[in-house]
């Protein structure tokens, strides 16, 4: 039996236009809405699969405002069965602060008889690009860690993690308990069912206050947006006279011969 905890972050939906907050410290999600990143959706899928095959439980955790409960409900609708919400304004938290808060929850749950054998996180934050939380969490808990995992399975009480390396796929065997950060692409996240959404509404979310009295913060100078990709338009002609130019263009693109 392997109990898995997935750590999520409420992030702006990047499918729309990306805007930064006035201070340049984060992505402004007021006009695009909020969601769960693809990395973390894959982590949820892995957690649900592992729990199903080992007879364990998949739980979910987030640190964020009251509205972040929506993201917890989304994970619950996908198959997680328990949720913990550290209710706090995340803007004052840096990677080390978030890792410390997660470590506190993991230790408290273990003291209560609810240990998490495996903790999964997204490889990096979809809004700020921070990729330190998983590593810092593993260090705080004294657990082995692998970053950039695409798939993981539990064999004889050992986590076998697969990650893409510079020369192909690397495979790691980690004793449990362990921490892994997940990259999208290794598994296909499932869609919530109607019954899953109904069950998610009935789950009581454990709410906690932050444990840290003082925070380090992000120590970030500012975020910047890449310059827009230049676009060029070439007029091939007008009316029937443009036919030859269109055919030549299709041939050059390999669309036709």
Could you list some keywords that capture this structure?
257 residues; alpha/beta; Rossmann fold; nine-stranded mixed beta sheet; 26% strand; globular
Task: Explain how this protein is built.
There is one protein chain. The chain has 257 residues and is of the alpha/beta class. The chain has a single domain (4-208), classed as Rossmann fold (3-Layer(aba) Sandwich), CATH 3.40.50.620. 28% of the residues lie in helices and 26% in strands. The chain has helices at residues 38-54, 69-77, 95-111, 133-141, 194-202, 243-252, and strands spanning 4-8, 11-12, 19-20, 27-28, 34-35, 58-64, 82-87, 118-122, 145-155, 158-165, 168-175, 178-182, 206-208. It has a 9-stranded mixed β-sheet with strand order 11-10-9-12-8-1-6-7-13, sandwiched between helices. A two-stranded antiparallel sheet has the order 2-5. A two-stranded antiparallel ribbon has the order 3-4. A hairpin with a 2-residue loop joins strand 10 (158-165) and strand 11. The protein starts with a strand and ends in a 5-residue tail after the last helix. 36% of the residues are buried. The mean pLDDT is 87.
